Amino acid sequence: MTLPLGQLQAGTPIVPGRLTTSPTAAIVLSEFRYAHLTGISTTTISNQPGILHTISFQAVATAVVTVYDNTTNSGSVVCVITGAATGTYLLDVFLLIGLTVQIATASADVCTAFAQYGS
Q1: Number of DSSP helices (H) and strands (E) in the chain, helices first
Q2: 3-state secondary structure (DSSP) of residue 101
Q3: To which CATH superfamily is domain 30-116 assigned?
Q4: Contact status, residue 112 vs residue 54, Cβ threshold 8 Å
């Protein structure tokens, strides 16, 4: 039996390494991975559920960066960051579908750290 993500219980531990299917067992993630994005673009980073850990801006950006819980630039918006200074935003949000990042209006130099379920 696979535990649907929508049925996660508060306090369920999350452990990198392997996937378990018991509702009382830990939910297992891959190790954190990164994606480095530059310019004006729309990039699907992951087509699997997981966690978006951080978004880092490597240079001051006047761009509008929109993060979607989806495999395209539509649907559930996780966050919109406008005109970010150099630095890192800690998010640690669950993604039920996937991860797509859209950089619009101006170039940006962005790095995301994320983990996928079971891979």
Answers
A1: 0, 8
A2: strand
A3: Nucleoplasmin core domain (2.60.120.340)
A4: yes
